[in-house]
Amino acid sequence: GRLAIIFFTDYAKYQSTYLDSNGEYRTQEFDYPESTESLFDIVNQAGSISSKKSSETTLTMRFSKQSSIGRLKTFFTKYDDIDKLSNYFIETFFPFIISNEEIEININFNTFSNKINKKSLNKNIKNLKFNLSLIQEKQIEFTLWLIENTESPKTTNIIQCFARQLKAELAEGKLIYEIDLEKSYRYYLTSDFFDEYVDQKGDKINVPITLISKIQEEINKTLNNHFRNEIERNRKKTLANIKTIKEKFHSISIFIDEDETLSTNKVLEEKEIIEKAIESKGKVEKKYWTTEEIENEDNDKLLNSSLNIYVNHRSRVLKKLKELVKSYDNDGEPKSELEDEIHDLFLKRKVTLKESSFINNLHNLWILDDKYTIFSSSFQAKSTQRGQELSDIYIWLDDPDNTKELLILELKSTTNSHNAGDKYESMIAQVKRYAYNF
Question: pLDDT digit string (tens) for 149-182?
Fold first, then answer.
């Protein structure tokens, strides 16, 4: 049935030499579509006596029509070198090749040639058998084949199934195996069990999804045992990544489920672990805002996480401020402070706190005094524009005509400081005058 590919050729010649019951080699051949006799009559023909002393089958196909060449290009776009073409034949006819010492496929393609037989496959192949009770407690044997190849290793590997000696897809679900390995393998699964469930065309296996799940579980157990050393190595790498994350990101470290993270066969990198922790934190935060419960373990995690974020933010602001006010850059070259950038670290020029879209800039006042860590809309703040005879930023708590508490922020360059108004006035006197005017 799979040789129906000749239907899409413009000319095909089939020739087979075989040993008959009398011990003579005979050759049977036909042309397609130029054969004058029905292809179904060929089984009744004896064929001609051959001078060859070994059995072989050759299929020659010719493509000459434009539509046929178009289909051929589609095929060779996917299989565009000798290795990919060889893999196509291995995937399609694997059980035939691996179970028969005498079968050999010779491929010639663009001056390259390759020979495929059981001996060549056995160089890079391992098989793992397992038994599974699926129907009426009957033990069914499955064989997993691991064929090493030169491709880049994949984390998620699809396991190809075979029925009646040919590759066939599962009608429901997929069998996969996830792992990080240094080598790349093709994963095949064979069993007589699949033969009973394959459709008439031979390319769909109609096994119930419940049985597929049982097969998947056993595949995981079998391969996990086979790759136990590699899995242990991967988990050590993941554990090292978790340790690094906990040192760098305290705010989400408590949301990392180590047991779950270390249960995978993959090496989980920093980005994957962080994303999973953030997802876990999001669920806790959603629950926090939608329930009235005050004390529980998740809430404690959330509040502790928030505190770590605030502390980390303060560290970032201080680091940014230090970079801005340094007189020299990282290469040791002199640099001038950019007063506007320092100004914007607290509140952008020419805006009041109510007008500002950067209301969280108030958090940055941590670097001035811890009392200003109060995140309250009752605070008032005004940022002046360059050149005004005023201080840079005013922050007050209540009525400006009768305020009990006022913070004046006056930024001065350490290399180019000046006083607005009176050049003989001290800087402290200038700030006092600004406070009096306020």
Answer: 888 999 999 999 999 888 899 999 999 999 999 9
Q: How far apart are CA 419 and CA 130, in angstroms?
A: 86
The pLDDT of 297-314, averaged and rounded, is 80
SS3 assignment, position 294:
coil
- State the Cα–Cα distance between residues 216 and 237, nearest whole angstrom: 26
Q: Are 164 and 188 in contact (CB under 8 A)?
A: no
What share of the chain in percent tops pLDDT 70?
A: 85
Q: Residues in the chain, how many?
A: 438
Would you state the structure tokens that stand for residue 175, as one six-digit string?
């069998």
d(CA 364, CA 370): 10
- The answer, yes or no, to whether residue 200 has pLDDT greater than 90, is no
The neighbouring-strand residues paired with 328 are 334
- CA-wise closest residue to 29 among 14, 39, 42: 14
Distance CA 215, CA 230 (A): 23
**What is the Cα–Cα distance from 333 to 314, expressed in whole angstroms?**
27
The region of weakest confidence among 46-50, 126-130, 380-384, 414-418 is 414-418
Count of other CB atoms within 10 angstroms of residue 179: 21
Tell me how far apart the alpha carbons of residues 369 and 358 are, in angstroms, rounded to a whole number. 19
Q: What single string gives the DSSP state of each residue in 65-93?
A: SHHHHHHHHHHHHHS-SHHHHHHHHHHHH
Mean pLDDT of the chain: 83
Residue 357 clears pLDDT 70, i.e. is over it? no
Helices (H), 99-227: 118-122, 192-195, 209-226
Alpha helices, H only, 326-361: 339-346
d(CA 75, CA 71): 7
Please say if the pLDDT value at position 2 is more than 50. no
Which residues make beta-bridge pairs with 132? 140
Which class for 420: exposed (0-12), middle (13-18), buried (19 or more C-beta within 10 A)? middle
- Cα separation of 29 and 24, whole Å? 16
Element (H, E) at 408: strand 406-409
Tell me the average pLDDT across 56-83: 86
Q: Quick one: 18 exposed, middle or buried, by C-beta within 10 A (0-12, 13-18, 19+)? A: middle
DSSP helix/strand/coil, 185? strand
**Distance, CA of 284 to CA of 282 (rounded, Å):** 5
Pairing of strands 406-409, 393-396: antiparallel
β-strand pairing of 176-178 with 380-383: unpaired
Residues in CB range of 166: below 8 A, 6 or more apart: 2, 92, 93, 95, 202, 203
CA gap 211, 217 in Å, rounded: 10
